[in-house]
Amino acid sequence: MKLTFAVCALIATAQAAEAQAYPDHLGELFTTKENLYNNNWEKYKKSRQLMVDCDIYESENWLGTGKCKYSWECRGARQCEGQGWCYGDDACEEVHE
Could you write out the DSSP letters of every residue in the chain? Predict the structure, then answer.
């Protein structure tokens, strides 16, 4: 009986510690939209549309690294496809040679 109680207490403690170790959003530890753009979509959109396609860093996308909603968020000739990921060859090497 005491052993069962001790095992249950150990499992509950491990689950509580595990739940506190992860962030709420599980995507990235520091979200881009909060750190770089202060949750301001208009500021993000304006900064991206002024860039040349090959100067875009997908690591600074609103939704996270390589994630997108529009193709103008992707580098070079890459397109926003599928489940919201930038996909394809950027062709930036061919353009800048």
Answer: -HHHHHHHHHHHHHHHHHHHHS-SS-S-SS-HHHHTTTT-HHHHHHHHHTS-GGG--GGG-TTSTTB-SSGGGSSTT-EEETTTEEES---HHHHH-
